[in-house]
Design brief:
The structure is a single chain. The chain contains three helices and no strands. The protein has helices spanning about 5-15, 20-35, 80. The chain has a domain at about 5-35. Helix content is about 40%, strand content about 0%. The protein is mostly helical. It starts with a helix and ends with a helix.
Length: about 80
């Protein structure tokens, strides 16, 4: 579909909208324009192209623990649990 025919189709569709909805269409167009000019943000990568160590899986292995009674009811909540 050519640019001219797309423009015509948009204008035809706009003509059947109630005027109260025009501001929503304008907001959407402004949003699209804003997204179009945003630069792509690349995550930093190492020379090999892989993610840095800080984002790798398992880098906190052995540094995090969970109590054995993690799922046990809290004493402070006993009166609400009954």
């Amino acid at each position: 579909m050519s640019t001219a025919s797309i423009r015509e189709t948009i204008l035809q569709e706009m003509s059947v909208l109630p005027p109260a909805r025009y501001s929503e269409v304008l907001d959407f167009i402004v949003s699209l324009k804003t997204d179009a000019v945003k630069p792509e943000v690349d995550k930093p990568k190492t020379a090999s192209g892989k993610r840095p160590r800080s984002e790798s899986c398992g880098w906190l292995k052995g540094k995090v623990w969970m109590a054995d009674d993690f799922d046990a009811p809290l004493e402070e909540m006993q009166e609400y649990m009954e």
